[in-house]
């Protein structure tokens, strides 16, 4: 057995604890890719949205509620409903592709350093969404379901 003084063993325990903390904090990144949307949703349902940027507007979480800047006539409940629609949206994957001209929307999720960038375009049959080289469709939907009216 290694002979260490009490101070030496304390140092070993401190470094082992720090190593375990680092390992546990980084294990989520090893097990999954947090930037890839799952098959059923565009955004993860278990990670809170902190803010949404689109055009010159910002929809941000304030405590348990939401605030739109510049302000609009929408209530806090209507803003929360817009965020809920994004998190529960079930798009159809159309394949690889991008949108030449679309409205850019950036989502900032809790615990992520970079925002998730989406490009949106309204079509007759729904909304097209481009994200990370993939093209999705939200059939039968309109942009007013996902963004405050008059903000795009």
Structure description:
With 152 residues, this protein is α+β, with helices and mostly antiparallel strands. The chain has two domains: 1-31; 49-145, no CATH class. The protein has helices spanning 6-31, 76-88, and strands at 49-54, 57-62, 65-69, 92-96, 103-109, 116-123, 126-131, 134-139. It has an eight-stranded antiparallel β-sheet, covered by helices on one side. It is elongated.
Strand content: 25-35%
- Helical percentage: 25-40%
* Sheet with the most strands: spatial strand order: 3-2-1-5-6-7-8-4
Shape: elongated
Q: What is the terminal-to-terminal distance?
A: 70 Å
Instruction: Spell the H/E element sequence.
Output: HEEEHEEEEE
Low-confidence parts: none
In short:
The protein is an alpha+beta fold and 152 residues long. The chain has helices at 6-31, 76-88; strands spanning 49-54, 57-62, 65-69, 92-96, 103-109, 116-123, 126-131, 134-139. The model has no long low-confidence stretch (mean pLDDT 84).
Descriptive key words:
elongated, 8 strands, eight-stranded antiparallel beta sheet, 2 helices, single chain, 152 residues, 2 domains, alpha+beta
